[in-house]
Amino acid sequence: MSSRDSLVIRSLEPLVAGLWIFFVLVSLAVAVVWSCGIGEGSLERSVSNPDLRAALVWMLAHLDLAWITLAAANVYFRLVETIGLATARRWALLIFGGVIAIAWVSVMTGFPLGPIRYGAPLSLKLGPVPLGLPLFWFSAIIGAREALLRFRPRLGQVWLAIGAGIVALLTDLNLEPLAAKWRGFWFWRATAPTLPPVFDPPFTGSLAWGILAALITLVLREKSVVASAQKRAWQPIVTLVIFHAVFLFSHLMHKFR
After folding, report:
1. Are 207 and 169 in contact (CB under 8 A)?
2. For residues 20 and 41, what is the distance between their CA atoms, to the nearest angstrom?
3. What InterPro entries would the database entry show (predicted)?
4. pLDDT-above-70 percentage for the chain
5. Per mean pLDDT, which of 22-31, 41-50, 82-91, 180-189 is the most reliable?
6. What is the pTM of this model?
7. Does the residue 158 lie in any domain?
8. How many distinct structural domains can be found in the chain?
9. What's the DSSP call for residue 158?
10. In a domain, 143, yes or no
11. Span 57-80, average pLDDT
12. 12 vs 218, more confident
């Protein structure tokens, strides 16, 4: 790693430490909101003060994007520590480009994610694709890659790509029902304009995300081999674990409520 990278990392250490704590706290809030189904309607019924209610509604509207952004920021900064600023930036651009491309093509053509349409909760859109989507997949793909290399540091590139693809597929399967039915992140256009939108995800969508993650991971190569698993950052792995924990907890709460 260059001296310039080291200087950047040292200057960002206080910020990175604070971001991680903030991410964990926001993750707890997201777990409560997702699992309890807290929305604007429930706030209207339970909060009588209009100013407080308006503030809570605003926070609730931006909570999901804030959570995903914090996850991506933490993963990115830890990636810089491991592989350097230039490589981390290149990897981020590659993942962002791949995710935006597959989502954009799906909106336009209905393939491979189906005739998908993205809602407002993931905020600002890059064309038809919300910013939160590439941020989420950046965290998930890097988290999967780092987890595999943490436990199998000598794993070959092809097997690493296959493993990351499988983890990405499972991540999407865990997320999809919540994202569509409960959070309004996206839905699928019905076959006829008079029919309501579809909220049941097609399996081909999860398969597509798994294949994309595998292809991207196949080309994510480090300039130097990290000899010890202990030198790899653990935050990207824990970020992925937190994602799955929130999803699973929300599934269970919705099932038994």
Report:
1. yes
2. 31
3. CruF-like
4. 91
5. 22-31
6. 0.92
7. yes
8. 1
9. H
10. yes
11. 94
12. 218
